[in-house]
Amino acid sequence: MSGRLVALAGGVGAARFLDGLVQVVDPDRITAVVNTGDDMVLHGLHISPDLDTVTYTLAGVHNEATGWGVTGETWTVMGALARLGGETWFSLGDTDLATHLFRTQRLSAGATLSEVTDELRAAWGIGVRLLPMSDDPVRTRLTLGTEDDGDGAEVEVEVEVDFQDYFVRRRHSVPVRAVRFDGAEAARPAPGVLAAIEEAEVVVACPSNPVVSIGPVLAVPGVRPALVDRRADVVAISPIIAGSALKGPADRLLAELGHESSVVGVARLYAEWAGTLVIDEADRGRADEVERAGVRCVVAPTVMSTPARAATLAEVVLGARR
Amino acid sequence: MSGRLVALAGGVGAARFLDGLVQVVDPDRITAVVNTGDDMVLHGLHISPDLDTVTYTLAGVHNEATGWGVTGETWTVMGALARLGGETWFSLGDTDLATHLFRTQRLSAGATLSEVTDELRAAWGIGVRLLPMSDDPVRTRLTLGTEDDGDGAEVEVEVEVDFQDYFVRRRHSVPVRAVRFDGAEAARPAPGVLAAIEEAEVVVACPSNPVVSIGPVLAVPGVRPALVDRRADVVAISPIIAGSALKGPADRLLAELGHESSVVGVARLYAEWAGTLVIDEADRGRADEVERAGVRCVVAPTVMSTPARAATLAEVVLGARR
């Protein structure tokens, strides 16, 4: 492959894939369009979890054990905050905090999220071009069906919460009734996003959560039509293997929102804009059903347990499109 | 003394005096009304330098060497921020940062600065009641007369800057033409401030910068009239000794704004609302001039080089009023 490549990215799964991709493609030919629906303001700081996970991973400083933050992290500020009685449900390491201070200060000085993202990319010496899906705020909001009544019992009640409230504070262990992307209607794709999709030789949908990682990117006006136009060159990687997500709540979210938690469910969700779906060998028996959903199916090992396996998967993806 | 006591406070000088005062007066009889004109938002964080200096000092964790921050501080976040190319002219230690995260989060959750200040006071186990002068934003702004032209030469130009820009970034080494307290007209005294002044047996103006520490407190509507009403019981301590400030730019600021940089200049500035001025023994020869400014003069050692000397000064102040 000699052309440019776009990767639609969420957090950990996307970061691992990109880490494999840069082993087989010159990084400066890669543009990652990253979900910002999980972004939040906490302690006054603008936090972009998926951008940070991708950045830290490509910088080689990510914490492999936790899946977020940097390796060798210290927790001085969080410890002091705990002693003050502050909110510590969202753990922010000392080095990680510097990222949020930098981003917040630059945004308050008038920089766009795109500009700040690029400054952080450059500071970490990353070759891959990183774009937030939008410079405008889009916030993933989840309607939960039950709530702890305070006495440990679950009661039926509809409550809408922010993504990190669901994902971190409640450890995504509560059923979800609905998902929406607040602000998406008014959001514009970040500068360069649509052009990158138009000009790419291949567009990859990384093995990220279809609902809350890829979903917000698709919700930004203009992105889905741009993908539809490039459908033959869009290769998606299923984050669902044998019915389950390797990490996170993608399987439960799919089921709760009425989709099948399987490669077939993913194929049906992506068929409009993805010409090819890469599924794991564990799902070989369902390849025909994927194809019947209208998506070309490629079977390959998709579990990126090592950087070498991520690179192999990247090779498969590059050879998979038609 | 058996009644209540109010201390009008800036940063280091006030904190040292309060540290002496709690040795001779039951802390729960003391209310400190603290300058917030130096407050700033940096990296999205609400920073209250004088409140923090007073809090850390009374908590016994202040950094004696620097005059700000906590002792034994670590700088992990600042180091990481520097590597990202972030703004590091205002040094924020890791433990100190927790204070700013806590304050910012609580303010964004709807708490007032008074409430947050009291929560931090309680977290540190401080007995003295700490009140910001106002829960409304008041920002000290300084008009500078010259500016570095970028080639190292000073050129005549009027530019208005924030307090910390002047004090920290420019190390208060530039001449000041004017000072104003942006927002003061619309600010209300924090709950309890006026009542505390009315009910106090003694009101002390700590040895803080008359222009940019005591000045903002006086600029909050209602405070100066409340002090005028209690003039006989207001005891000020001169921060100027033998024409100079022990620390900071009080001497230069007084001169630049047309006042005499001396105990006499302070007496003239404070005469309307302070019945007594405590001056250092070094200024004994100017006691008569102080009295001619209409202020009763008490001569005592005012350099608080040790906690014991601070306590001695506190005893002097308590015995000084009439």
Describe this structure in words.
Chain A folds into two domains: 1-137 and 187-322, Rossmann fold; 139-185, no CATH class. In chain A, helix 4 (94-108) crosses helix 5. With 322 residues, chain A is α/β, with parallel strands linked by helices. In chain A, the strands form four sheets. A seven-stranded parallel β-sheet of chain A has the order 5-2-1-9-10-13-14, with helices on both faces. Chain A is built from 13 helices and 14 strands. In chain A, strand 3 and strand 4 form a beta hairpin. The interface between A and B is medium-sized, with 32 and 32 residues.
Write the SSE topology:
2 copies of one chain form a homodimer.
Chain A: E1 5-9, H1 12-24, E2 30-34, E3 40-42, E4 45-47, H2 49-59, H3 76-83, H4 94-108, H5 113-123, E5 129-132, E6 139-148, E7 154-162, H6 163-169, E8 176-182, H7 193-199, E9 202-205, H8 210-219, H9 223-229, E10 234-237, E11 240-241, E12 244-245, H10 250-256, H11 263-270, E13 276-280, H12 287-292, E14 296-300, H13 307-320
Parallel strand pairs in A: 1-2, 1-9, 2-5, 9-10, 10-13, 13-14
Antiparallel strand pairs in A: 3-4, 6-7, 6-8, 11-12
Helix pairs in contact in A: 1-2, 1-13, 4-5, 7-9
